[in-house]
Amino acid sequence: MGAMPTWTIAPEPFDSPVAAALWRAYYTEVSDRWYLLHEGRRTDPGELEREIAAHSGGELAPPTGRLLVGRYGGEPAGTAGVRLRADGRAELTRVFVYEGMRGRGGAALLVHAAEDAARALGAERIVLDTRHDLVEARALYARLGYQETGAHNAATYADHWFAKRLR
Hints:
Layout: E1 7-11, H1 17-39, H2 45-54, E2 65-72, E3 75-84, E4 90-97, H3 106-120, E5 125-130, H4 135-143, E6 147-149, E7 160-165
Parallel strand pairs: 4-5
Antiparallel strand pairs: 1-2, 2-3, 3-4, 5-7, 6-7
């Protein structure tokens, strides 16, 4: 009997083909969920392309950011990003696992790796924002010790904000 596949997590250039595919999958899912909930339709393809192009992920490049890719059994399966903010806090972003890879512990491993990256960047606190309809994400963050806080940004679609002390 062969060994079970395992997760590996490593930094990835924000503009690599793997990172681009994960960003496209992430953005498509969260955008479609919002539009289906609020307008009963999927994201317009033109809008999807504009938004993906407008948010390249450059803020996740060293020296003030990191993009991490989780591979399950060697195959790209998820991502998490962290960027250092001007106020010295780190911001967790782009936490995503392909639907077929969920339930295997990858999201928690990605978040923990992002927290380690934030500590390495010098952050003592990490923050994030999410939406009310992303209930799985909110449950994950609560389970990992994040506390819901007041707004720390004016992100258009954000309606839940979380923070966690890292040191």
